[in-house]
């Protein structure tokens, strides 16, 4: 019986080196380490469960924060939903363990670093982030919030894929059947949000109609 060894970075280079073509990802955001001369202002710190992967964040508030109820998030996180906060790739600075990361691209089920992909600690398997082509989705439960006000900065704006929920959350936030702004609002979504969506879609239909004339 043969033994197999899990390589932290899959087919994406030597985990102990930053040289060579296969290691070029380590020099690009979000994985490149910021130089002190860049003036990276540390606002938050986060880590995986085992502590091998640690990072800093410079932005006070995420670009957006949401709960995603899609079945992929439910399975990968082993939870009813995913809490995700959106940041620019340059907003993060890995201080430990960016050589100890593993990737998973869910559409092809591959561990190759192919965008968009899911990033986790290769040792304890804590999900670290989802890396998109332009942004990253971080998980606020990994952040060490110093006070309640910091935690409030990550309050969600809406729920996505709420039609696939496994539990109801009656928080009065907008609840989209799929992606926000491109699906329908359901459940206890605020009436003003429902009305605004209706007006927006009526305007879009009117604009389409005018273009066809």
SSE blueprint:
Layout: E1 44-47, E2 54-57, E3 64-68, H1 71-77, E4 82-88, E5 92-96, E6 101-104, E7 117-121, E8 127-131, E9 135-138, H2 148-152, E10 158-160, H3 191-212
Parallel strand pairs: 3-10
Antiparallel strand pairs: 1-2, 2-5, 3-4, 4-9, 6-7, 7-8, 8-9
In short:
By secondary structure, the chain is α+β, with helices and mostly antiparallel strands.
What would your notes on this structure say?
With 213 residues, the protein is of the alpha+beta class. Helix content is 16%, strand content 22%. The strands form two sheets. A seven-stranded mixed sheet has the order 6-7-8-9-4-3-10. It starts with 43 loop residues before the first strand and ends with a helix. The model is unreliable at 1-7 (pLDDT under 50).
- From the helix content, strand content and strand pairing, which structural class follows? alpha+beta
As a percent range, the share of helical residues equals 10-25%
Show unreliable segments. 1-7
Order of helices and strands: EEEHEEEEEEHEH
Strand order of the largest sheet: 6-7-8-9-4-3-10
Shape: globular
Question: Main β-sheet, in a few words?
Answer: 7 strands, mixed
Provide tags for this entry.
213 residues; alpha+beta; 3-stranded antiparallel β-sheet; 3 helices; disordered N terminus
């Amino acid at each position: 019986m043969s033994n197999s060894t899990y390589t932290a970075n899959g087919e994406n280079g030597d985990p102990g080196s930053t040289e060579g073509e296969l290691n070029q990802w380590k020099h690009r955001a979000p994985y490149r380490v910021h130089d002190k001369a860049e003036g990276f202002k540390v606002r938050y710190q986060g880590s995986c469960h085992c502590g091998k992967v640690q990072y800093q964040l410079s932005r006070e508030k995420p670009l957006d924060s949401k709960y995603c109820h899609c079945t992929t998030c439910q399975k990968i996180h082993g939870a009813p939903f995913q809490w995700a906060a959106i940041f620019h790739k340059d907003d993060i600075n890995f201080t430990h363990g960016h050589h100890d990361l593993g990737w998973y691209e869910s559409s092809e089920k591959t561990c190759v670093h192919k965008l968009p992909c899911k990033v986790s600690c290769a040792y304890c398997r804590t999900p670290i982030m989802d890396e998109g082509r332009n942004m990253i989705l971080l998980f606020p439960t990994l952040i060490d919030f110093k006070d309640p006000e910091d935690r409030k900065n990550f309050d969600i704006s809406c729920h996505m894929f709420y039609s696939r929920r496994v539990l109801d959350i009656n928080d009065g936030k907008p609840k989209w059947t799929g992606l926000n702004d491109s699906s329908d609002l359901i459940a206890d979504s605020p009436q003003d949000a429902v009305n605004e969506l209706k007006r927006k879609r009526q305007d879009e239909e009117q604009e389409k109609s005018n273009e066809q004339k």
